[in-house]
Design a protein that fits this description.
The structure holds 2 protein chains of 2 kinds. Chain A is built from 5 helices and 4 strands, in the order E-H-H-E-E-E-H-H-H. By secondary structure, chain A is α/β, with parallel strands linked by helices. Chain A has one domain: Mannitol-specific EII, Chain A (3-Layer(aba) Sandwich), CATH 3.40.930. A 4-stranded mixed sheet of chain A has the order 1-3-4-2, sandwiched between helices. Chain A is globular, with a radius of gyration of 14 Å. Chain B is α/β, with parallel strands linked by helices. Chain B has one domain: Rossmann fold (3-Layer(aba) Sandwich), CATH 3.40.50. Chain B is built from 4 helices and 4 strands, in the order E-H-E-H-E-H-E-H. Chain B has helices at residues 13-28, 42-46, 59-62, 78-89, and strands at residues 2-7, 33-38, 51-54, 68-71. Chain B has a 4-stranded parallel sheet. In chain B, helix 1 links the parallel strand 1 (2-7) and strand 2. Chain B is globular. Chain B starts with a strand and ends with a helix. Classes of the chains: A alpha/beta, B alpha/beta.
């Protein structure tokens, strides 16, 4: 088994964010805290949404913020930010968002294993609601399947 | 048969579409080569694809194509993927 890419320091539970930009910025900060990305990665994730629209809201209540592999990515990493108050990304079907994931990927070639893990977690349709309701980092880790 | 999953970065969301499309195709007993791509690598990837999986935001950017462009709303809903893939491939 490869080590899970989610670190305890990349989890923020019950955060306050005034809008989607603030929420994505929190995911960027969590990736920086855990050593996966430089601070500039948050701006890159926001730029992807400014450029392409709210497509990162890939399921009801869930955004998968990410940018391309690049110099701001230091290691593969996943941040999980749950919001005290859901925010709108302007998505036609999947707003409001209460769980923001931040994904940093070093190389596109190897990222499929990582997203396969995400699919394993979120293909269970109850996972997003359980994450949104989680009150501790340990609980988030357990839902994400990374508990030891 | 070739299927291309498209997002803005070519990682992350298109990767999830690829993984789940492969799982659904296996369940449906269908064979296909599924790749994840981003918008700027589009023309070469889409040229010989039968199906493009993506979000509503990218439909205009994909432009005219012979492929069936399928818009997925919930990337983790394999039921939605199965219904839409089956409809496109039958």
């Amino acid at each position: 088994m490869r080590p899970p890419i989610i670190a305890e320091s990349a989890i923020i539970v019950g955060a306050e964010a005034e809008d989607w930009r603030a929420a994505v910025r929190l995911a960027g900060r969590a990736l920086t805290l855990s050593g996966a990305a430089r601070p500039g990665y948050a701006d890159e994730m926001i730029r992807m949404i400014d450029e392409h629209g709210p497509y990162v809201v890939i399921a009801p209540g869930l955004a998968l913020a990410h940018a391309r592999p690049g110099p701001d990515v230091l290691a593969d990493g996943l941040a999980v930010v749950t919001l005290a108050t859901p925010v709108s990304f302007g998505h036609p079907h999947n707003d409001p968002v209460s769980v923001v994931l931040g994904l940093a990927i070093k190389s596109a070639d190897t990222h499929i294993e990582t997203v396969a893990e995400l699919a394993n977690v979120f293909n269970d349709s109850s996972a997003i609601a359980r994450l949104a309701a989680a009150v501790s980092v340990a609980e988030v880790l357990e839902i994400m399947g990374s508990s030891t | 048969m070739k299927i291309v999953a498209i997002c803005g970065a070519g990682i992350g969301s298109s990767g999830i579409l690829k993984i789940n499309a492969e799982r659904v195709l296996k369940r449906l007993g269908l064979e296909a080569d599924v790749t994840a791509a981003h918008l700027s690598s589009l023309s070469s990837d889409v040229a010989d694809a039968q199906v493009v999986l993506t979000s509503a935001e990218f439909v205009d950017a994909i432009g005219p194509t012979n492929a069936d462009v399928i818009v997925i709303e919930n990337y983790f809903d394999t039921g939605e993927l199965a219904l839409k893939l089956e409809a496109a491939l039958s």
